[in-house]
C-alpha cells in the first residue's frame, strides 16, 4: 500500500466528522466506566453464580462497546468504500504491529481469553506461582488478588505458554485441603473418622458437598488430607485454618503424635 491510498482515505476529514467521532468515543468511554463501576458493585451484593456471571460479563461488554465504537467511528471519519477502509486499517495494523508488538500480543491473547474463558472474574487461579481471585480482566492483562491482599497483574500474552490452575472454574464450588502428618502406631480408621467429624462440625463447610479424608503412607509416617468445600470461595483460608486448629487439637487429645515432614517429602 502506498501513501496515496491513505491520503485519499483521509481526504474527507472535516471538523464536524472529527467532533462526531470524539463524541462517540466519549460516550463509549462513559459507558465502559459506568459498567466497570456498577456491575462489580451489584455483584458484590449477590452471591453464588449470579455474582460470577455479572463479573464475567464486564470484560465481554467492554469488548463489545469497543468493537461497536470502532465500527461507528471509522465510517464517520472516512468515506466507507472498500479502498478507503482497506487503506486505513492496513496502515493502522502496520503501525500497531511495529510500535506495540508485545501489547498487540497481549491484546490478541485477551480476546482469545474472552472466547475460551480459561478464567473469569471471581475465579481463583494460580499462574506462575501466584494464587488469587481474578478481580478484573482488561484488554491487555488480568488482575488477581492474593490471600495477602496483593494485586498481581498478569499480561494475557504470558498465558500463551503458562499453566493455569483454576480452582472453581466459574462456579462457587472450591475444594480446600488441610493436611496432617502423624507418626505410625495409631488406628488409621479412627483418625479418619475423627477428622471427618471435625470437618462436618465446622461452621464454614458445605455439609451437602462431599467431605473426604484421604490417607497415604509416607517414609516418615502417615499423611492425612481433609478435603472439604467452604461456604464461599473467599472462605477457603478461614476453613483451612479452622480444620487445622480443631483437627490438631482433636488428634492430640486422641493420642496421635505429629511428625515433622522432611523437605524432600513435603
Automatic annotation (TrEMBL):
<keyword id="KW-0997">Cell inner membrane</keyword>
<dbReference type="InterPro" id="IPR023408">
    <property type="entry name" value="MscS_beta-dom_sf"/>
</dbReference>
<comment type="similarity">
    <text>Belongs to the MscS (TC 1.A.23) family.</text>
</comment>
<keyword id="KW-0812">Transmembrane</keyword>
<keyword id="KW-0406">Ion transport</keyword>
<keyword id="KW-0813">Transport</keyword>
<dbReference type="Pfam" id="PF00924">
    <property type="entry name" value="MS_channel_2nd"/>
</dbReference>
<keyword id="KW-0472">Membrane</keyword>
<protein>
    <recommendedName>
        <fullName>Small-conductance mechanosensitive channel</fullName>
    </recommendedName>
</protein>
<feature type="transmembrane region" description="Helical">
    <location>
        <begin position="21"/>
        <end position="40"/>
    </location>
</feature>
<dbReference type="InterPro" id="IPR045275">
    <property type="entry name" value="MscS_archaea/bacteria_type"/>
</dbReference>
<keyword id="KW-1003">Cell membrane</keyword>
<dbReference type="InterPro" id="IPR010920">
    <property type="entry name" value="LSM_dom_sf"/>
</dbReference>
<feature type="domain" description="Mechanosensitive ion channel MscS">
    <location>
        <begin position="102"/>
        <end position="168"/>
    </location>
</feature>
<keyword id="KW-1133">Transmembrane helix</keyword>
<feature type="transmembrane region" description="Helical">
    <location>
        <begin position="84"/>
        <end position="100"/>
    </location>
</feature>
<feature type="transmembrane region" description="Helical">
    <location>
        <begin position="52"/>
        <end position="78"/>
    </location>
</feature>
<dbReference type="InterPro" id="IPR006685">
    <property type="entry name" value="MscS_channel_2nd"/>
</dbReference>
<keyword id="KW-0407">Ion channel</keyword>
<comment type="function">
    <text>Mechanosensitive channel that participates in the regulation of osmotic pressure changes within the cell, opening in response to stretch forces in the membrane lipid bilayer, without the need for other proteins. Contributes to normal resistance to hypoosmotic shock. Forms an ion channel of 1.0 nanosiemens conductance with a slight preference for anions.</text>
</comment>
<comment type="subunit">
    <text>Homoheptamer.</text>
</comment>
